[in-house]
Every structure is written in C-alpha cells, then in structure tokens.
Amino acid sequence: MNTIAFKKLFLVLLSAAALSSGCLKKPQRPDPSATVLGGGAGSGYDSSLDPIDLSLLAPGTGLEGRGAGFDLNGQMRGVLEAVYFDFDKSSIKAEERAKLQAAAEHLRNNPSHRLLLEGHCDWRGTAEYNLGLGDRRANAARQYLGTLGIAPNRLETLSKGSLEAVRNADRETAARDRRVELVVIQ
C-alpha cells in the first residue's frame, strides 16, 4: 500500500471517529412527578392498580393466552417433580419412573402443554462431559415418555450440564444436582 492511499484511509477513519464521538446531545430526562408512574397531580396514575398486573391487559395484546401459572417465558416450573439419577448415570431408576408417568398423565390431561426436559449434573467432571451427560439424561427421559405414548413434538430437551450445580457440594446437595427438571411449556 503506498503512502498516499494510507494517508487517505487514515483521514477517512479519523473523520469518522470524530463525527461519531462528540456530536450527540444527551436527551433531556423528564421530571418524575410529570410521568404516569410518578404519581403527580394530573398524571393519570391510579395507585390502586398494580402496574405489573397483566390480567388488566386488553384482549389481543398477545399476553392473555399464556394461562395461569406460566411466567413471561411461557414456562411453569414446580408442577412436576424432577427425576433424579445416580452418579455418572443416565438410566432412569425404577423408583423415578412414577414421576415420568405423572408427567405423561399431565400431558394427556392438558393437550396444549408441552414439556422441556432440562438435564442437570453435579459439579464433578469437565463442563463438556457434564453437558453431554445432561443431554443423555434428558434424552433418556424423552425416550421413556415416548414409550408411554407421548408424541415427540410435545417434548424438548436441553442440557444445562453443571452450569447450575453447587461447587464443592456435599453428597446430598450433589445428588439433588443430578436430575432432569420437567418444565411445563406452552
């Protein structure tokens, strides 16, 4: 590259940097008492209404169909019990199968619901290994639900590996980390 072209490129870059750095004005912030949530006189804010109460939204906003118990992501946690696994295993224990049978019954009774099967591991092992193990656990639960007649399009899997595990946990805490969470989704 010759020096003239280099100087032109340098001037163009310098001009662009100068134009983008100091030419913008900061926006004027409104006085909080003059805003709707500020509660000032004539603001139109009714303090008896909860500003987070989504049930007051008019139909057609897209949020009315989420149903009771679902969060804003369309998930409902804690309805179904988690399925627990032995250390470094992805096979479903006989005593845990009743939880998956209850999940299948829930899906049969609620045809609009689906399940997200989140595979989790304890803190031991590498991140890569634990992601794979969490995936195997979630897929084992998916396969078992398939044998109970649940359609594959109603099941999703996700491996969280050891991302949410308690580091250096004792035996009981680590045992609670080895699970598949059954999250109801719409």
From TrEMBL:
SUPFAM superfamilies recorded: OmpA-like
Query: Gene3D superfamilies, per this entry?
Result: OmpA-like domain
**Database matches in InterPro entries:** Bact_OuterMem_StrucFunc (IPR050330), OMP_bac (IPR006664), OmpA-like (IPR006665), OmpA-like_sf (IPR036737)
GO-annotated cellular components: cell outer membrane
Keyword Membrane listed? The answer is: yes
- List the Pfam families hit by this protein, alphabetically: OmpA
Q: Where in the cell is it found?
A: Cell outer membrane
The primary location reported for this protein is membrane
State the signal peptide span: 1-20
Please state every residue range assigned to the domain named OmpA-like: 72-186
Q: Which UniProt keywords apply?
A: Cell outer membrane, Membrane, Signal
- PANTHER family (UniProt xref): LIPOPROTEIN YIAD-RELATED, STATOR ELEMENT OF FLAGELLAR MOTOR COMPLEX
Q: What is this protein called?
A: OmpA-like domain-containing protein
